[in-house]
UniProtKB/TrEMBL annotation:
GO CC annotation terms, alphabetical: cell outer membrane
Residue span, Outer membrane protein beta-barrel domain: 41-208
Signal sequence bounds: 1-26
The name this protein goes by in its record: Porin family protein
Keyword terms of this UniProt record: Cell outer membrane, Membrane, Signal
Annotated source species: Labrys okinawensis
Lineage: Bacteria, Pseudomonadati, Pseudomonadota, Alphaproteobacteria, Hyphomicrobiales
PANTHER family, alphabetized: BLL7405 PROTEIN
Cell compartments where the protein resides: Cell outer membrane
This protein's record includes keyword Signal: yes
Protein family (similarity comment): Belongs to the Omp25/RopB family.
Length: 208
């Protein structure tokens, strides 16, 4: 003899099963939680490229005598809470940015820089300052000759870096380079002067 549940009781159990399992099935098949992309860490090693304006006399990137600067950089950053500290090595072709010298002109041809940087990360944006040493290759023209060739100076500057993804970032940076005691000679005799150089550049970094 078969035992049958009363019709009202069976209907109630069926409704309870459907309402109890429905949300679970929905969660399994449909993810309704909002997506969240964590901010970049601005940490680890990176390599990159940069381009901009180089000047041996003026901070104006459009001044006469400026040249196109192209180069590469590599570095390492470490994250300490919101703070970021790191070091960077950079090499650039300065394109011959020039200025007047006694008896002619001097040109900046190449520059290597070793610099530290420190800043604050604000979500996907890094604001930083930088300072270090710069090694610049000078040459004379128009009757002036440079006695030193490669000359050591110091560098300082600031920049902003914006993360485009978790690995790729775009940066805009200004550098001031002071090269003391550059020696030149010409038909007017020997001279020595301090050179103040400027660079405004944009770049891309790839972190790995």
């Amino acid at each position: 003899m078969r035992t049958q549940l009363p019709i009202p009781l069976a209907a109630g159990l069926l409704a309870l099963a459907v309402t109890g399992c429905g949300p679970a099935w929905a969660e399994d098949y449909y993810d309704t939680s909002p997506s969240y992309a964590p901010p970049p860490s601005f940490s680890g090693s990176y390599v990159g490229v940069h381009a901009g304006a180089a000047s041996a006399k003026s901070a104006n990137p459009f001044a006469k005598g400026n040249s196109l600067q192209l180069g590469l950089q590599t570095g390492y950053d470490m994250r300490l809470g919101p703070a970021v500290i790191g070091a960077e090595v950079e090499g650039s072709n300065l394109g011959g940015a020039e200025r007047q010298a006694r008896g002619g002109k001097i040109r900046e041809k190449w520059r290597a820089a070793l610099k530290g940087r420190a800043g604050i990360a604000l979500d996907r944006t890094l604001l930083y300052g930088t300072a270090g040493f710069a090694f610049t290759k000078f040459e004379g023209t128009g009757g002036a000759r440079v006695r030193d060739g490669w000359k050591t100076g110091y560098l300082m500057g600031a920049g902003v870096e914006q993360a485009l993804s978790d690995r790729v970032s775009f940066k805009l940076e200004y550098n001031y380079v002071r090269t003391p005691g550059l020696k030149t000679r010409s038909s007017f005799g020997h001279a020595k002067e301090d050179i103040g150089s400027h660079a405004l550049k944009a770049g891309l970094n790839y972190r790995f």
